[in-house]
Amino acid sequence: MFAPNAIIENLLQRKKPQAAMTLDALFATDAIELASIEISSILHYFRVCGIAITESIVRRGLYDLARLGVLDTFKVLSRSKGRPFWNYAPKKAPKIAQVLGVKLHRDENRDAVPFTAFRSPSAYRGAKHYSLIARLGKSQLSRKKLGARLGVHGRSTFNYEQGTNIKAEQRVERTKLSLADVAAAPLKRLNQNVFLEVEFEREMTDLELEEKYKDFDPAYKIFWRRTVKDKKYMPYTQFILRRELERGNTVYLVKQITNEYSINV
Known about the structure:
Order of helices and strands: HHEHHEEHHEHHEEHEHE
Largest sheet: 5 strands, antiparallel
Distance between the termini: 25 Å
CATH topology of the largest domain: Arc Repressor Mutant, subunit A
């Protein structure tokens, strides 16, 4: 059983991915139930269980967890080496949540990830991202919030989806505008997620004409329609909106809203 999501997300949002990975590995292998942990023995235990986690991640993770109070630390004298070394005493999930200031629900989700995902912080975050979408099913989610829960920018979640069967469908709202809407438009562009979609007619190029009418008799070339409807996307400002409407173009206000995510089976 993996660590509760609320605890892992708290550590990721603190920019402590190694701590999150190490703690999740302790839960996933039931090593969290041990009375004490020594680095060399826990690394061996992780390898036996198939956890693909590096020594540097575990060392940094244990250090950060101890600094946060998630693990208690004490020194043990090594009879073979003749010098003391650090041991770590893990706490149970409710105590960890209390230390981190996290509220756990009775049915707190614990998203599982493949053991191979522990090879790097990026792979681990990507696996957590995938697990959430797989658990929720077809859902409308904000990319910004998806990134925030993992302690990264929303754009990073796009990278996590590359090479997976996650389907992110962009959703927009379109509203047709008129000259009566010009006064309500901003003087300068304020939001990149809000823009104008302009429909207009333009002259076709010679290549476009040849392609469109390649199966027609050139003798009737004089009757060929030489214009085509096209679209362009422009910033949402008063000046641009008025200019395009006065040119006789059809203008829509487009607002990007939350994407819809699902797993392609």
